[in-house]
Design goal:
This protein has one domain: 2-Layer Sandwich (Ribosomal Protein S5, domain 2), CATH 3.30.230.70. The termini are far apart. The protein is globular. The protein is α+β, with helices and mostly antiparallel strands. It is built from six helices and nine strands. Helix 4 packs parallel to helix 6. It comes from Rhodovulum euryhalinum. It is an enzyme of class 2 (transferase). One of its GO terms (biological process) is tRNA processing. Homohexameric ring arranged as a trimer of dimers. Its EC number is 2.7.7.56.
Length: 238
């Protein structure tokens, strides 16, 4: 029995509310169970120096957790004077995941920065950030297309992510914090709407896993991402 009472293949409730901030070109608040992440996308008519005059666009991301996103207060990283290693790793993951679903030639030489701020954490924050980040990015690109600044749609395929793991000896979908903290195997699966893999992060957290178990987790992830992509499309009106 899972702590939440869910079936092994059952996602937590998913909701995506768009247009939640006034100034960002694209924004959403994604809720996956008790994990809530605010995602905003900001357009800039410039690219990083290493891409100047390349004709290619750039999508990057930043990630952070509010001090009381967790059960005890965390110190703001800004007050510590630097980002932690986990934060840097996650925001790089978000950036390269979102870029996998973008035609950077069609985007043109401009940058879109996706900011993902965790308001409340209950497991799977990086997966929620990627899933919500795509929605914010899609909305920002819609504005570019509406004004005619971009003619050909650079968004090639939705991008979403879900966690899976081995909990109490069973392969389960969409781990919440009680499961994540106890899982023998923990994994994050980033995929496109057409079912292609972008990135898989798997680790043994106290128990090794077999190829058969890996295949089960991949099957669960495939089904979970399909549900998330359906929610993404509904949110942006596709």
């Amino acid at each position: 029995m899972r702590p939440s009472g869910r079936d092994v293949s059952e996602m937590r409730p998913v909701s995506i509310e768009t247009g939640v901030t006034k100034h960002a070109e694209g924004s959403c608040l994604i809720r996956i169970g008790d994990t809530h992440v605010l995602c905003t996308a900001s357009l800039e008519e410039r690219v990083p120096p290493f891409m100047k005059n390349s004709g290619l666009g750039w999508v990057t991301a930043e990630y952070g957790m509010l001090p009381r996103a967790t059960t005890t207060r965390m110190r703001r990283e800004a007050s510590a004077g630097k980002q932690g290693g986990r934060t840097v790793e996650i925001q790089r993951l978000i950036g390269r995941s979102l870029r996998a679903g973008v035609d950077r030639v069609a985007l043109g030489e401009r940058q879109i920065t996706v900011d993902c701020d965790v308001i409340q954490a209950d497991g799977g924050t990086r997966c929620a950030a990627i899933t919500g980040g795509w929605v914010a990015l899609r909305l920002a690109v819609n504005k570019l297309m509406k004004t005619g600044e971009v003619i050909s749609d650079p968004m090639t395929d939705p991008v979403a992510a879900v966690s899976c793991g081995i909990y109490a000896g069973q392969a389960v979908l969409d781990l919440d914090y009680p499961e994540d903290s106890e899982a023998g195997v923990d994994g994050n699966f980033v995929m496109t709407g057409s079912g292609r893999l972008i990135e898989v992060q798997m680790s043994a957290e106290g128990a090794t896993f077999t190829r058969e178990q890996m295949d089960k987790l991949l099957g669960l992830a495939d089904a979970g991402v399909a549900q998330l992509v359906a929610a993404q499309k509904a949110a942006v009106g596709v």
